Q: What sequence folds into this?
């Protein structure tokens, strides 16, 4: 269990560091457009700073897959949202993003919630699940992609609530990669490394992960380019965690701790982390980045 917790924490640190570098990079790139997906990807891939951030985030994904094999989805995702604190601090120090009193309180709630998650680990019922119906995973994934794309295609909603839309949509897509990562981890139980690799790539999961990752990256980068990373990041992290736990726990047959105290700590901890992160999207109307918008408006999509 300790190994899983440490791996989860390592993944959170990688995601926070990678997102910070990516924010630094997109602040210096031309306006990103979701209508021109190929051009947007070429723009991102042409930035050494962005590639460095992406590489660190990719390392985080690998570590997260290993974590899923040691502890339950709820533990991995709850610890993963701890990266929110680092993102907010980085936004304040590097990008002059001001923390409001409510946001400071939200960070305190996240820290307390993480303590509750840690206390829940003392109970039994932390065994990771190792089964899932591929059909159900694909159905849930299709519904997720459709929902995220519908949000991004709503021009009025995107214009009036930019950080909210990009945070929610990228969170859904990142949640999809979380489900795919968990599914990949269930294939890592073969008699040899070669058989494990073969099992992974003969399944639909790595390709599902690739689709979710591309959609998540583009929507998240567009969001942090025109809105505060301290808003889009926490909101995206909260939705991603909620989706991965909410969908992944039944899909993979995982269970909550068996004791009453363990269940209480786990549920309160997870809810507290999600609520604390959601606070950062509450004042979305004033969450624009310090970057000046382009002549034809903010990030195109």
A:
């Amino acid at each position: 269990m300790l190994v899983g917790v440490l791996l989860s924490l390592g993944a959170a640190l990688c995601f926070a560091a990678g997102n910070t570098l990516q924010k630094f990079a997109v602040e210096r790139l031309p306006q990103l457009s979701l209508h021109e997906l190929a051009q947007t990807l070429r723009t991102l891939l042409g930035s050494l700073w962005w590639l460095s951030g992406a590489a660190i985030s990719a390392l985080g994904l690998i570590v997260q897959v290993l974590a899923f094999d040691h502890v339950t989805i709820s533990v991995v995702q709850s610890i993963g949202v701890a990266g929110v604190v680092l993102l907010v601090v980085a936004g304040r120090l590097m990008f002059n993003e001001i923390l409001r009193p409510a946001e400071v309180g939200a960070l305190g709630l996240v820290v307390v919630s993480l303590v509750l998650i840690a206390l829940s680990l003392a109970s039994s019922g932390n065994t990771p699940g190792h089964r899932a119906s591929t059909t159900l995973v694909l159905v849930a994934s299709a519904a997720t992609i459709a929902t995220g794309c519908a949000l991004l295609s709503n021009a009025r909603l995107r214009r009036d609530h930019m950080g909210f839309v990009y945070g929610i949509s990228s969170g859904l897509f990142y949640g999809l990669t979380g489900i795919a990562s968990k599914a990949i981890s269930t294939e890592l139980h073969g008699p040899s490394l070669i058989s494990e690799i073969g099992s992974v790539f003969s399944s639909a999961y790595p390709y599902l992960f690739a689709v979710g990752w591309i959609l998540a990256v583009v929507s998240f980068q567009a969001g942090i380019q025109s809105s505060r990373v301290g808003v889009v990041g926490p909101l995206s992290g909260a939705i991603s965690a909620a989706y991965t736990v909410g969908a992944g726990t039944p899909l993979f047959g995982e269970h909550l701790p068996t004791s009453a105290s363990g269940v209480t700590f786990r549920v309160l901890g997870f809810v507290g982390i999600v609520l604390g992160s959601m606070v950062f999207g509450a004042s979305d109307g004033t969450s624009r980045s310090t970057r000046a918008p382009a002549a034809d408006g903010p990030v195109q999509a």
Residues 2-286 form one domain. The CA atoms of residues 247 and 292 lie 38 Å apart.
